[in-house]
Amino acid sequence: MPDDPSEPHSSEPHSLGELTMSVGPRTAPARVLVVMAHPDDVDFGSAGTIAALTRAGSQVAYCLVTSGDAGSDDLTVSTADLVALREKEQTEAAARVGVTELIFLHHPDGAVEANLALRHDISAVIRRTTPDLVICQSPARIFDRIFASHPDHLAAGEAALCAVYPDSRNPRAFPDLLADGLAPHTVPEVWLSAHPEPDAFVDVTDTFDAKIAALRAHASQTGHRDDLEEMIRGWLEFTAIQADFAEGRLAEAFKRVVTA
Ligand SMILES: [Zn+2]
Questions:
Q1: Interval between CA 106 and ligand 1 midpoint (Å)
Q2: What are the pLDDT digits (tens) for 14-25?
Q3: Residue 255 near residue 191, CB atoms below 8 Å
Q4: Domain residue ranges in the chain
Q5: 27-258 has which CATH code?
Q6: Cystine design at 29: which of 12, 133, 204, 220 (Cβ 3.0–4.6 Å)?
Q7: pLDDT-based confidence at 13, cuts 50/70/90?
Q8: How far, in Å, from the CA of 249 to the mean position of ligand 1?
Q9: From the CA of 109, how far away is ligand 1's center (Å)?
Q10: What is the pLDDT of residues 127-186, one digit of tens each?
Q11: Ligand 1 centroid to 110 CA: how many Å?
Q12: Residues whose CB is less than 8 angstroms from the CB of residue 154 and which lie 6 or more positions away in sequence, other chains included
C-alpha cells in the first residue's frame, strides 16, 4: 500500500544496515514501534538495540503506556510535575539513541490493565506508525528476576500483543479507528523483552555508551546509582554469555514471536 504523503513516516526508501544477532546478521527493519509501560523501561531493557537499529537506518517510535507518575517516593512533588519531568527525561533519553517520535498514552502508572481501552490505544498507534517490528514487554513473568516483571510490564506486554494480533489488523476491531482514517495494519514480528526464555540476542557492544547516556537522562531514577555503568555492563556481559557471543561482547535479549 502506498504511503500517504501526509503521514509522518513517508520518507523515501533508503538502504538499511544490519544488526549482529545470535541468529546471524539481520537486515534492520524499516519501521519499529516500541511499546513500554514506563519511562526508562526501554532504556534498561533495549536501548542498546534501539541505538543499533537507528544507526542501521530504522525509523523507531516509542509508545509509553504511562508517564511514570508513580515513580517517586517524594510526596512533595506534584503528580503533574512528576509527569512533566519523566516525559522530558524519556524524550532526552530517546534522543541519545536516535529516536524523536514519542507517544504518551497517559494510562495510570501502577494500575495498567490489559483491557480493551489500552488495546484500542495501542492499536491506534500501530495503525498510525505501521511498524515492521514491535518491541514490547513480556506478558510472561520471570520468577528468578521478579523486578523485571512489574505488573504494569506484564499488562502492557499483554495489551501490546493483543493489539498486534488481532486488533490492529482486524478492520472490524475498534471501528472508530477506521472512521478516523487508520487502516488495518499487520505487524509481522514482535520481540519481547524480559522474557523468561529469550531466543534472540542482539550484540550491543558498539552502542553501550549510547545506552548508558540514555539511562543517565533518567536522572530522577538513575541519578543516585554511582554503579550504573558497572551494573549494566555486568547484565549485558551475562546476557552475551547466554547468547554464546565472543568473550567481552555485550548483548540484549528478546523472545522473538512471528505474528504474520
Ligand atoms: Zn517499568
A1: 14
A2: 799 999 999 899
A3: yes
A4: 27-258
A5: 3.40.50.10320
A6: 133
A7: low
A8: 26
A9: 9
A10: 999 999 999 999 999 999 898 899 999 999 999 999 999 999 999 999 999 999 999 999
A11: 9
A12: 114, 137, 138, 139, 140, 141
